[in-house]
Request: fold
Amino acid sequence: MQFRIVKKAEIGKKKRVLIFLGSIVAALFVSGLFLVFLKLNPFQVYVAMLQGSLGSAYRIEQTIIYAIPLLITSLGVAIAFKMKFWNIGAEGQILMGAFLASYFALNYSHLPKPILLFIMFVAGFIGGAVWGIIPAFFKSKWDTNETIITLMMNYVALKWVVYLQYGPWKDPNASGFPRIANFAENAVLPELLGVHVGWIMAVLLTIFVYYFLNKSKKGFEIAVLGESINTARYAGVNIFSTVILAMVLSGGICGVVGFIEASAVEQTLTKDITGGVGFTAIIIAWLGALKPQWIVLASGLFAILIQGSSYIQSAFGVSTFSAQLLEAIVLFFVLGSDFFTRYKLIIDWPILSRTKESGK
Amino acid sequence: MITVAFLKAAIIAGTPLLFATLGEIITEKSGHLNLGVEGMMLMGAIIGFQVGYSTNSPLLALVFAAIAGAFGALIYAFLTVSLRANQVVSGLALTIFGTGFAGFIGKSLVGMKMTDEFNYFFRDLKIPVLGDIPYLGEILFNHDIFVYLGYVTAIVLGLYLYNTGKGLNLRAIGENPAAADAASIPITKYKYLHILLGGALCGLGGAYLSLAYVPVWQENITAGRGWIAVALVIFAGWNPYKAIIGSFLFGGLDIIGFRLQGTAVAISQYIFDMAPYVATIVILVIVSLRKSRKNAPPKALSEPYFREER
Reply:
């Protein structure tokens, strides 16, 4: 028996979706085996995950609160990925956005609420954008590997916030506990329909990124640059300014997540503010094929997965790390399934081919 | 400040980095960028710890750590070699998997300590003659067996890559897979073997952290060292010999913040903790500024090879 691999012609949308769903089912099956190994009934666990994430109005709200940072960060990451600029630095961009927004929240809380929140929004964007411009500058000037630089900048941002939390910004009223003071009421985002208004920003940003990537000239140039730098050069795209602009947007949008999470969820700045969103977002952006409409769906799925796993943690005593394992298994299968959209596997059975040959 | 004790400690701190860097060099030489180093180190660290904790045998612990790292690499190799998936995302997925894997298994081991058996296994062994050289002897040749294993691995890999036919084949695959294929080098076999070997080395690097360096189990024990290793590959110009220097330099940066605590230097420890990361950025920028052909990455790095696409 021998395998041969043949390239497929472009396949239809319907088939693509089927392959995607097939890979999810396969991933759930393998995760199910893992759960059986833990002496749990996988069906019970999966049903409980759905109940835990969508079973009541309150739980749906909680799931949406998880989905907001995932969605916005994925949108930011997707802009960079479209350009094949591997921005692994969303974690750091979120932290720096949160840091700059918190600076205004802590020092200018006497300003009227709408003005303060607007300043914090802009500050969050700038904080993330600066953290995005630095690797973009090096990449476009000297072709410095952006994957490593953005990654290292995550750690620099993290250590910076740790420094603030344990040092100059430590709340003197927290009886020695290393934490930063809570924001004043003025610096906290209001709620609408049970969820903080971050969800409105998420909707608006989805529309914006959709139009930017699909309808604007710059968005088109980013896509061309991602396909081939030589084509972009030939078409007269200004590579330096395109890379910088894409990373200002990518980092800036991630920075806005920092502002939202600090203002609405934590109501202060902490070193744990990202909760690993920056890494999960890379997966979501990839699963969503870098298309905003699909990213919305993938973010929803992951929010269900995360909220569901924190529910089964208390219901079945499964560790939160199992959620991470589940995420990775789903990702492995989806990554692998892409093969079947591009190639066809042909198995040559020696017996069959022999009969064919003898028939000749 | 830069004392013999500090330099000796820098070598110990650099040893896990050295293993991971060597593992990634051998992987990238086959044309595959595996960003799962952090994940594979964590898998090696936890399996090594778990096996060591339950069998009390350092050798078994190390063997299983290497197998665990290679297992992680196998997932990556299947996805990127056989299924031609995107290497960057596959590597990231592997890191997420490894982090979850280690966290999951290690949940009940947090705070557990390795036994005296391991202290004995990883005791300092002075090398005769070399160990008696003033200063250098103490810094370089009075270490535990694993540090020596690091030196040996680096040199063996260097000899393998630059002085053997198989090493030449491997480099050919990383530079120009189509040509290597035409020369009937079994590409898929080479890629799998070297990606797995790379994973095993990363697993060993992780195990050194959990078995000898720390040696208490704590969550996320690698603390980003896998990523520094990925950067060190670029710093070393894909050369195993230079990886030795790079790893020990970064080992020094890793411990400098802690060492400066309580000294006259009036800068917060948390600021010094940034040192290895900032240094990585600075070095990468400098390396990219003076691009030389000698330090260039394998030409076909992170490009999937498909024979019929030629």
About this structure: The mean pLDDT of chain B is 88.
